[in-house]
Amino acid sequence: MSKDEIQNSVFTKYPDVSNYTNRQPAQQQSTQKFANASLTHLTNTHLTSQTWDFRQVIGQFTPKTLTLSPRLYSHIPDELQQTYGQTLSRLFAARGVLSVDDMDMSVSGLLPAGDLLGIDKAVLTIDKALDEKKRILIVGDFDCDGATSTTLMVRCLREMGGDVEFLVPDRFKFGYGLTPQIVEYGVEMFRPNLIITVDNGISSHEGVQKACQLGVDVVITDHHLTTKPSPEAAAVVNPNQLGCTFKSKSLVGVGVAFYVMGRVAKVRRQMGKSTTKVAKYLDLVALGTIADLGVLDKNNRILVTHGLAQIAKADCCFGILALLEQAGRDYRQVNADDFGFAVAPRINAAGRMDNMRTGIECLLADDYETAHHLATELGRLNYSRRAIESQMRDEATHIIETLHLSDDKNPPKAISLYQDGWHQGVIGIVAGRIKEQLYRPAVVFAPADNTKLGDDDLIKGSARSIAGVHIRDVIEAVAIANPDLILHFGGHAMAAGLTIYKKNFNAFGQALLTAMQEFDDEVFNEERFTDGQLIANDFSLSFVRTLKNISVWGNGFAHPAFDGVFEVVNFRILKEKHLKLTLNAPGVLYPIEAIWFNYDVDNWDYRASQVHILFTLEINQWQNNEYVQLFIKDLAVCQIN
Description:
It is a single chain. The chain is α/β, with parallel strands linked by helices. Helices cover 40% and strands 18% of the residues. The protein has helices at residues 3-9, 26-43, 49-58, 78-93, 119-131, 144-159, 180-190, 205-213, 253-270, 282-291, 298-312, 318-326, 336-353, 357-364, 368-402, 427-438, 471-481, 505-516, 541-549, and strands at residues 10-11, 69-70, 135-139, 163-167, 194-198, 217-221, 235-237, 415-418, 442-447, 458-464, 488-491, 495-501, 529-530, 562-574, 578-584, 592-596, 608-622, 625-640. The longest helix is centred in the middle third of the chain and has 35 residues, at 368-402. The two termini are 46 Å apart.
């Protein structure tokens, strides 16, 4: 990539990159530092020029500790402490749990469906369509939440006797949502009498109007945010629509679909009509909720807990079992992280690289052989996705390093990037990586059609944000201030999508930075949270098992992370990039193993005798043995020998 290409691909406050084009990447510098530093120690040779390099790198030692923010809580109710003990009660109090009942995951604790605005109209419309044998078309979305929502709807409606087909817009042809174009295409292909959207539709005013013109009723089920009145459909069910009093605003698309289908099934059961048991598809609800980063309030934790329990008994879709096998995960020990890191990326790969129909067909498969074949295809697509993502990420990193952003103490409050050769299906992932690297909201664009690269052609952007910056609202503010700039947008607090003309890329970048000036500088200082120190008895297999089994952890119910000061017994470097430590802790009678994956060379000193670490608790299995292992998230050297 040339300097001119870089200047044309990034909008930041640094217009001149000429001074940085020959700069050595930071990671290469860090790696070279350790290479110079490590040789003498590891080989026990005499002093050489390599040792002097090491002294230049290390210099005079300065003791350090981590700067961490404790998770706050007002008090720990006696009931919690008596039931769960000192450490667990502290964890729960810091996550808003005020009573033992808040940890009751019984299905009876789910919020009532009747509180969802529009659900009764939706039930009547769907029930009538089933009775009259009308053709129903499900219009989904091209991510994992959309795939699980579509699968749940199709399975349930078919089991209730419905004539049901599904359609997921090809992101490269039709874009997102119930557009007029996808309505026309769906009507031509399937001749439906009723369209039901899942995980989309709340902003599809024109699409609903087109369906009405063609004589097709529409029921919208969605969860995306909106500040405008809902489309004039036959029914709209969305906990985030204006006027809805449903207590949980964190249902994802498959959660809304579950509530709607559950209500339809209940009404038809009471009337003696063909029905089904919707609760058997909680595996799909759990997968979609975790994949879409649904906030794990009590309602979502109930849904996910029961979905995971069904999978652990193999009482689930063949597609989920096949995908877990593809990822090398044991379904009997499945957890929420397996969804987020192993299953969801494979399903998402279908929507990113090809067409989500493959992902949905995998989840709809009624035999393991078919599911396994489709899961293998999804694995192939995921491999291709990773290769393209890696190339795009390297190019984005090159731009960032060339512009000196990664080392700047005060980089722009938002980053916007675009390249003609980038792939629309992967821009969200790349935006997430940039956000993590710089701790700034990032918007990454790619051509809407890679054969149309002119200034008057469309580009699509995917945004990822940080805590404290509601990125959808920021983009809306940009759209209001610049009415002709953004053609379409939508999303959530942490992720959003938008479409603009290529010629407006720089103007968008400027407008975004202007909107970001409303945020205080403190928002851009990343906080690292700790749940405090552990007592000696917590460094045990029994406690770690309890920690993992007592609740699902994730977005909004954060994985527990602890900190403490430990004595270093010894260390090893694994594969030249991982740091493995053996530690001693006060009151613990045995050594504790810890590992820091992709460790920060600049934060490590081979002479360390005492370290302050931020860590999570894990169980490592090796040669049929299990032992507690700390996964290090950050480290500071307190003392050296």
